[in-house]
């Protein structure tokens, strides 16, 4: 999933709502006045307030030239998320706590996790064990990619049960939903909330990813509605049909995979790459989805930056390209009828 923000932190720029296309270039390190190295023990001894640690983290992140995109897009947003989440404070409320003094134990904890972000180059959600989509928390670790799909934002939009143009006019009429390449299970869980009467199947090839999804399904109390299935795309589904299929499959090209920054190399590579142009798995989904949709069903699929490739390969297909706060043309909707004609 492409680099983007999926956490709503209190910071400045307003981070919106995951295989990455090309990661954004890192912010050039501040070289004019090089910062002296400050280890975690020194930071814990000398810094006192949330504001102190926020400033310290921003400086360390910028100096180290870190790359973002796993829930935040700037050093400031990353620092705010890491400090607030580590202190178990609401990630959308920074101002009330800026001048709060931390206990010695809290100072050590925050100083160590800030330093770990720099030295390991692990995405912040792997260090905290938690990521957010549309404000909903999910457990994450290195068995799954950090959830950051644009589909999460779309599910909460008027496209599902809103006024005007909709993909699904009445979400209560949806009886079965499929989430392909579920990873942490986040989209399946969100879908269970958007479609309150639906049973949801969540499929992933990785048994390890499904272990993480199982944690999230249990935490959401949805074991009776979300079924986790191990297998290769549609193969384990044995002719089941769905009203809605959601999928955020791997879609990183071979060239982009070769150039991934360190942060993205901590993620499971099988969940990122998909052939030379990144669309091998998307093509398989397009070829088979119609067999697993009800007559009025549809497919919502995220593909990153491959729009031009798909439109060239399927010139007679009118993809419905959808817009989010930070994207346009990276997620499409096709109906069962359109998929029949591919």
Automatic annotation (TrEMBL):
Known catalytic reactions: L-glutaminyl-[ribosomal protein uL3] + S-adenosyl-L-methionine = N(5)-methyl-L-glutaminyl-[ribosomal protein uL3] + S-adenosyl-L-homocysteine + H(+)
Question: Is Aminoacyl-tRNA synthetase among the key words of this record?
Answer: no
Q: Where is this region: Disordered?
A: 1-30
**Entry keyword set:** Methyltransferase, Ribonucleoprotein, Ribosomal protein, S-adenosyl-L-methionine, Transferase
**What are the annotated GO cellular component locations?**
ribosome
Keyword Ribonucleoprotein listed: yes
Entry EC number(s): 2.1.1.298
Q: Which GO terms describe its molecular function?
A: methyltransferase activity
Q: What is one GO biological process annotated to this record?
A: methylation
Methyltransferase small domain ranges (all copies): 173-256
In terms of Pfam families, this protein maps to: MTS
CDD domains in alphabetical order? AdoMet_MTases
**Where along the chain is composition biased (Low complexity)?**
10-21
**Function, as annotated:** Methylates ribosomal protein uL3 on a specific glutamine residue.
Family assignment from sequence similarity: Belongs to the protein N5-glutamine methyltransferase family. PrmB subfamily.
Q: Which named protein is this?
A: Ribosomal protein uL3 glutamine methyltransferase
């Amino acid at each position: 999933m492409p680099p983007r923000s999926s956490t709503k932190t209190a910071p400045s720029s307003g981070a919106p709502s995951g295989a990455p296309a090309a990661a954004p270039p890192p912010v050039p390190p501040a070289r004019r006045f090089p910062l002296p190295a400050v280890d975690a023990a020194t930071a814990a001894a000398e810094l006192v307030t949330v504001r102190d640690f926020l400033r310290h983290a921003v400086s360390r992140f910028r100096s180290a030239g870190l790359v973002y995109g796993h829930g935040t897009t700037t050093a400031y947003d990353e620092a705010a998320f890491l400090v607030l989440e580590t202190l178990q404070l609401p990630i959308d409320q920074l101002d009330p706590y800026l001048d709060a003094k931390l206990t010695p134990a809290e100072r050590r904890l925050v100083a160590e996790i800030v330093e770990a972000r720099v030295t390991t180059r692990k995405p912040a959600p792997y260090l905290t064990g938690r990521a957010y989509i549309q404000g909903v928390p999910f457990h994450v670790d290195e068995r799954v990619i950090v959830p950051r799909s644009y589909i999460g934002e779309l599910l909460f939009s008027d496209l599902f049960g809103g006024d005007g143009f909709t993909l699904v006019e009445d979400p209560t009429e949806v009886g079965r939903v499929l989430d392909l390449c579920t990873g942490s299970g986040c989209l399946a869980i969100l879908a269970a909330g958007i479609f309150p009467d639906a049973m949801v199947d969540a499929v992933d090839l990785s048994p390890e990813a499904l272990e993480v999804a199982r944690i999230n399904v249990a935490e959401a109390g949805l074991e009776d509605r979300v079924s986790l299935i191990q297998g290769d795309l549609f193969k384990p589904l044995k002719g089941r049909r769905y009203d809605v299929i959601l999928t955020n499959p791997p879609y990183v090209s071979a060239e982009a995979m070769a150039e991934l920054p360190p942060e993205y190399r901590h993620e499971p590579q099988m969940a990122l790459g998909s052939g030379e142009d990144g669309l091998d798995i998307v093509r398989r989904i397009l070829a088979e989805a119609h067999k697993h949709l009800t007559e009025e069903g549809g497919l919502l699929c995220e593909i990153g930056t491959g729009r031009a490739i798909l439109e060239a390969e399927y010139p007679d297909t009118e993809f419905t390209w959808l817009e989010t706060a930070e994207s346009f043309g990276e997620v499409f909707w096709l109906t069962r009828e359109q998929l029949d004609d591919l």
